[in-house]
Amino acid sequence: METTSATGSRFALEPFRALRLADSYVGDPISHRVFARPYRSVPGRLRDWRRKRHLRVDPQPALYLHEYTSAGVSIRGIVATLDLAASADRVFAHEAVHADQVVELANRMTEMSLNPAPILLMHQGPESVRTTLRATARTAPALTYTDRAGQLQRIWRITDPATRDGLVESLADVRAVIADGHHRYAAATRLRAEHPGTGWDRTLVMLIDQADTPLQLCAIHRSIPRLTFTTIEKAAAARGDDFRRHESSHDALAELETAIVLHDGHHWATLRPTPPSPLLVTALHESLLPAWQVREDQLQFHHTAAEALARAGQGVCVLLPAPTFEQVAASARSGQLLPQKATSFQPKPHVGVLMRDLRDG
């Protein structure tokens, strides 16, 4: 693993004063109104909500340990601000972004003067950090509540200088991969370049240890209208892909961990591309779609297999295995970006639990 002495960079977490929605508003769709258009009005709405005690800001900066639980799955991570310049070589994207969307988001963030949610970063951390965080989690949290959407929130403030500084130093060698928030991270780096020496030098992140309480990596499936098995089979013969028809869904789905599963509403098949690829979603976009003469804008995306299968009668649904953290991390750190919507990370924390108003530091 690279070290700070070898590269001159460091993963630089810093404490901040958290802005929090009142417990009764977290997970409630009505709370989204405070962040809605026009975005230039958001700072005024925040001031109004503070007066009404719908929003509160912590009195002193801290690192935060945030643990949230959804459907029995608990995720725990450190929430802090990240020095973008110092950490530039230690945060890795795993998928590309749209430049126009980054510009739009940067403009919105400027008008709001707010980080409404942390960017989710994942890594495999040192045992010393896990030990400290587990010990912290055994103490009474500063806040604990179940929000309006049923997500359990538990928050600890880490203000002891020795503990805080020890965590920051122990995490200095982190090489983190973005799980959720690629466009926000790109927008944050743009704002840092445009407004040096301001609060935009940092952005809000949540660092999650995949060796402790891992985010679940889930596949995002595709459906392709008007595509036929005939087209796929002809392309497979020309390319040397291993295309096999199956008598039943059970037989086809049994191979989903190692093959692409195809269904056209009547028939089932599996496909293993040539050359073999450990990341089938990459092979799909780089090799198979061109061979099938399918454009990216023809794809429809589905977060569950059931949703994709429901569209099979309109063409072909393409079921993909979920990549592993190790595959995503290796791809990101090598500079090999995955296609957009290659995977989703679940569960995510609800908006409003921990935010950062740039005027509060």
Features:
elongated; six-stranded antiparallel β-sheet; alpha+beta; 21 strands; Conserved hypothetical protein from pyrococcus furiosus pfu- 392566-001, ParB domain; 361 residues; disordered N terminus; 11 helices; DUF1015 family protein; nine-stranded mixed β-sheet; Conserved hypothetical protein from pyrococcus furiosus pfu- 392566-001, domain 2; 29% helix
Outline of the structure:
By secondary structure, the chain is α+β, with helices and mostly antiparallel strands.
What does this protein structure show overall?
Helix content is 29%, strand content 27%. With 361 residues, it is an alpha+beta fold. The protein has two domains: 4-215 and 347-360, Conserved hypothetical protein from pyrococcus furiosus pfu- 392566-001, ParB domain, CATH 3.90.1530; 221-319, Conserved hypothetical protein from pyrococcus furiosus pfu- 392566-001, domain 2, CATH 3.30.1760. The strands form five sheets. Strands 1, 4, 5, 6, 8, 9, 10, 11 and 12 form a nine-stranded mixed sheet that branches. The longest helix is centred in the N-terminal third of the chain and has 14 residues, at 99-112. It starts with a helix and ends with a strand. The model is unreliable at 1-6 (pLDDT under 50).
Q: Any idea of the CATH topology of the largest domain?
A: Conserved hypothetical protein from pyrococcus furiosus pfu- 392566-001, ParB domain
User: Roughly what is the average pLDDT, rounded to an integer?
Assistant: 95
CATH class of the largest domain, anyone?
Alpha Beta
Strand tally: 21
CATH superfamily of the largest domain: Conserved hypothetical protein from pyrococcus furiosus pfu- 392566-001, ParB domain
Helix content: 25-40%
Major sheet characteristics: 9 strands, mixed
**SSE class:** alpha+beta
User: Ranges with pLDDT <50 over ≥5 residues?
Assistant: 1-6
Distance between the termini: 32 Å
Shape: elongated
Give the percentage of residues in beta strands.
Answer: 25-35%
User: How many alpha or pi helices?
Assistant: 11
Rg, Å, rounded: 22 Å
What is the name of the CATH architecture of the largest domain?
Answer: Alpha-Beta Complex
* Number of structurally distinct domains: 2
